[in-house]
Amino acid sequence: MKLVRIELKWALIFSLVSLLWMILEKISGLHGKNIDYHMYLTNLFALPAISVIVLALKDKKMNFYSGQMSYQKGFISGLILTIFIALLSPLTQWITSYIISPEYFPNVIKRSVEVGYYKTTEEALRFFNYPNYAKQSAIGALIMGIVTTAVAMIFLRTKSYTK
Q1: Coil, strand or helix at 128
Q2: Which residue of 32, 82, 108, 159 is surrounded by the most CB atoms within 10 Å?
Q3: Is residue 87 within 8 Å of residue 80, measured between CB atoms?
Q4: Where are the beta strands (DSSP E) in 6-129?
């Protein structure tokens, strides 16, 4: 457990940040009256998401590897962090879907049919639902976490690492 304590801590922080982001989206009307802007503005979550992953990798480097971390060790740490985030993502999606913003799915289904993105409500229902979003969030977390870690470690690795 001590080996992955930092990754687990930052996965929990990531989950809290994502829930705070969802609260911000709801407060700003992106799950209701401003839903037309949601598909664009929700992508801004990449900024805090990347920041949390970079902070986690820096924490691992400084407090576990005493400031000396190879690309490989950092990548493995980021991969572990990513797996924890992906495992927690269905829970954070559930909290978002059923507690923070239960009106999101009905609103986005209605609006997507109104603007012709989907022809029928049934079609929209097949995409906009908790099970589908839970899968998407887990898969998205894995993909984005791996890519973010791969790029971040280019800059965070100890250049003169010899071990």
Answers
A1: coil
A2: 82
A3: no
A4: none
pLDDT of residue 109: 98
Radius of gyration of the chain (CA): 18
Using alpha carbons, select from 85, 53, 66, 63 the residue that is nearest to residue 151: 53
Helix, strand, coil abundance in the chain, percent, nearest 5: 80, 0, 20
Token digits for 146?
């791996």
121-137 per-position pLDDT tens digit: 999 999 999 999 999 99
pLDDT digits (tens, 9 = 90+) for 69-113: 999 999 999 999 999 999 999 999 999 999 999 999 999 999 999
**Token reading at 87:** 């495992």
Tokens coding 51: 């920041």
- Calpha distance 118→162 (Å, rounded): 56
All structural domains of the chain with their residue ranges: 2-156
Buried b (16+ CB within 10 A) or exposed e, 33-71: eebeebeeeeeebeeebbebbbebbebbbeebbeeebbe
Q: What is the token pair recorded at 108? A: 């986005």
75, 134 Cβ separation under 8 angstroms: no
Residues 152, 43: Cα–Cα separation, whole Å: 19
